[in-house]
Specification:
With about 375 residues, the protein is α+β, with helices and mostly antiparallel strands. Helix content is about 25%, strand content about 25%.
Amino acid sequence: MQRIQISPRNNWQQAVEQLGFGFHTTNVPYWDESAYYSFYMDEIVQIEKATAELWDMCLHAVQYAIDNNLFHQFHIPEQFVPYIVRTWDEDHPSIYGRFDLCYKNGQIKLLEFNADTPTSLYEAGIVQWFWLQDFDKTKDQFNSIHEKLIEYWRILHTYLHPGTLHFCCMGDSLEDLTNIEYLRDCAIQAGLATKFLYINEVGWDAVDKAFVDMEEQPIKNLFKLYPWEWMVHEEFGANIFEDKNNTFFIEPAWKMLLSNKAILPLLWKLYPNHPYLLPSYFESNMLASYVKKPILSREGANIDVVLNNNLLLQTEGEYGEEGHIYQELFTLPEFDGNYPVIGSWVIGQQPAGMGIREANTLITDNLSRFVPHVIE
């Protein structure tokens, strides 16, 4: 794995905007093609193998958490437990997830699993692929995201209730909108009837006991780019229990166990000393050098990096009331002040590709940049 500096394409902004990538730059650059990461094929095979194995381990951990009634460790409201168990027992399928991995000195370590509302999918599946066609179309990427999304939507179609598949996200995020419209486009290519609305446009018919859209049509299938951990604490979320249509949600509710960092100590308990895992605990006294993470934080918020019991780095934010986990410190590799995290995608049940985000510190936050990659 190497970081190679290059010159960006002339008018690269126009090139990515033609793809529908409108959030390439905010107050800081997000898409960065002044460099790329280079991998040998055996490194890609290693990452792909780790991704498949971690997915299987996570599924085992879900079953273990359910069998042993460990929902309290995830701070999941008790009234939602039977619903989570039902979605698992009925095999409600997941279409995607993103493992954040540290790859350094030939070692791969799981940092966390973005299992419910992962983004950067469009950049990984589409934007970096078109960059590669301009940069060197004779080369390849670890990237079958687009093909696997369409393929799995076809498979998932058989699980859905008859009728339309609605897609929703929040209305104040161009990033969320771009990612969900990409997912919807793949569903359309797979032959599904779809409809888009914003999350605040999802209505509830109190008389008919059903979720409805703005045209008062029932919502029987809903892909939501909106976190389960928010829904379960909102009054609106409780309508799930009364919903006469048993609306089919994607991602399913059982993904609450995997999108929660409490899964990390559980994985370590189930697979102690596994080469892809870092020692992780609910107590801080087990480690001298560790990263303290809220179990539900996002974009690097409220993180403490501790080295030999001394605070090295800290970020602020609004998370932490729900509890923390402590994960052994395994610092990201450094390339001239750039620290990359590999986001390795699972589409359906299969490894499907990766995207790389890099930051200027050991904590990958909302100022990180997306950098493309190439297989040499």
